[in-house]
Amino acid sequence: MAKVIFTAWKTKSQLLEVRDEFYPPPTYAGPDLRSHGCAVVEAWKLRGNVPHHVEATALLTDAILHDDAQRNSIFSIRATYSAAFCRFVTGLVDTKIHGVRRTMFQRATDLGLPASFVELRHEATHREPPSLVVLRKAAQRSLEWLWDNYWAGVGDDSGAPALTHDDGASVRAALCDALQPLSGRSADSVPKRRKRDQAVSVAMRLVSVCNVSGNAARLLSSVLLERGFLVPSGRELGDSMNDTFKEWNPVLQRVAESHPAFLRHLIEDLVNDLAFKNTTDISADAPSEALYLWIAHILTSPAWEFHRQSCPQSYVLRACDESPHHWTKLLGDQLRKHASKPKSVLDARPAGKNRITKPKHVRNDSQYAPSQLSDKLLEHGWGFLEKWDSRPLGVVSRTGKGNNYAYLVTDEPTKQSVIIDPANPPEVAPELKSQISSGKINLTAIVNTHHHWDHAGGNGDILKQFKGLQVIGGKDCTSVTKTPAHGEEFKIGDRISVKALHTPCHTQDSICYYMQDGDQRVVFTGDTLFIGGCGRFFEGNAKEMHKALNETLASLPDDTKVYPGHEYTKANVKFCIAVSQTEPIKKLQAFADQNKQTQGKFTIGDEKLHNVFMRVNDPEIQKVTGKTDPVDVMAALREMKNSM
């Protein structure tokens, strides 16, 4: 029997009209109808069956309209914001309402609701109302979340770009339609508040297109540059870009928050246009200067500090070195100068304890002198170990500056080999050629743990030098030809069996590779698991990392040796010892102090003892974080580590 659903509105067009009153289309220039939308929802409440998302939108909007210090007291404004925000969050995550025995944080994770919303709700409910600055920001973010998770899917109308086919032309048209309100407008012709509302509206519509199409994030970067959105028309050499940054930062950052891959594509396209642009006198080229300023702004300014963590800076530097001209030299110098600045860090401490600021240790790479390779390779920003270090199972590893590991895995009887994460071809290729020419290996494939440029960025150059290689990795890896399913197995030669383990979080295409040769077992973990640590949650959340570490990888045999993507052990153990002073952690600290490399020296069993991210069920770790749910403990540990 068909299910009948009674709604508070008579026709869907009425719901769409209210949506446009709360979220006016960018081209709308009429009166502010938000108060009318609130009144309509209030009337609908009398009929019943008003979805929580609709009611919450009205309450939050009404709180914003109530934000007038000339007519209302500050206390009244804060109370109104707090009540609206708390009702919005509670209606989504309260376990009594939904009848599921889960914490509010777990419910929030399931819904994709920021955990900070739950924390702010607790503060507003049980303590003093938060400050107006915090409440205003929370209300705005809540309305954006409601758009993405409810209103954008209500139905198609003129306010949202139509996307009938997921082909390049249709996606480009939808993106251009969404961007149209920001094209060619005069900075003086739009009131400040209206300008901000337009930026938010455009950003939400771009996110909606990206939600529908898997290619939209990449195409958006191309559209922004091809159509000249990011460079003011008529801009002359030396003109300030500050107004342009202020206009576009909220739009680009909002898209990057929802689709992190977008920022990676944007940086790559910006630097490609800058580095390889064919201009006679590029130093006098105003558009090239604008590209330089955009890249420097995103990669060095405080406004982008949170978002740029997954940006491919190594690729930017390499492009600057390979195509040296006026602007790339300036950019390279600025990025290296920015990277060398000493930063202050906070010791990890339990909540409520004093935090002590210490200068961050800056590593001196002079001890890693090149041996057989040319000094010219240092121009690419890499340092080298004196020799390749052979390991069991035919594993050979090499580090470069930035502590990247590349691994060569060889099946000894057949000499079939794969190279894992060859991020820097000038470093890796000479050794591969040497081993191939001497008959030691038969290179068959590149294997990538994830798409970041310090892992998959060298694929293109390696493929040019070594023809016919397969590229095995996540769907976003450069030139990938095969993405193995979770649990899928394949062979290297006759003896080495490989199982792909999907571990999304650091990136959504992260894959760990578990390999066996007889009784030897190893796992290549990329940036998911480090010795004594784990990767940042660039494209995922604590729930995903908990599953990756404490379910997927923890299920491997305890004697499985761990080969991570970077040598971060000294920094990781510094954090671990601040959280817990157990004997295994002290032993790891002593080993790291005495050894430059730790890859392949520790096992999954060891990680369960000295890696605090794999001890989320340990009462000691729970006490330090003040959390008991494993996912909440994981989230708290990551935040503590990020602050160091």
TrEMBL record:
Family: Belongs to the metallo-beta-lactamase superfamily. Glyoxalase II family.
Pathway given in the UniProt record: Secondary metabolite metabolism; methylglyoxal degradation; (R)-lactate from methylglyoxal: step 2/2
Keyword tags: Hydrolase, Metal-binding, Zinc
GO cellular component terms, A-Z: Las1 complex
GO molecular function, one term: endonuclease activity
Ranges for domain Metallo-beta-lactamase: 403-566
Single GO BP term: rRNA processing
Domain of life the protein comes from: Eukaryota
One Pfam family in the UniProt entry: Lactamase_B
Entry cofactors: Zn(2+)
Spans annotated as Disordered: 341-368
Name of the protein in question: hydroxyacylglutathione hydrolase
Reaction(s) catalysed (UniProt annotation): an S-(2-hydroxyacyl)glutathione + H2O = a 2-hydroxy carboxylate + glutathione + H(+)
EC number assigned by the record: 3.1.2.6
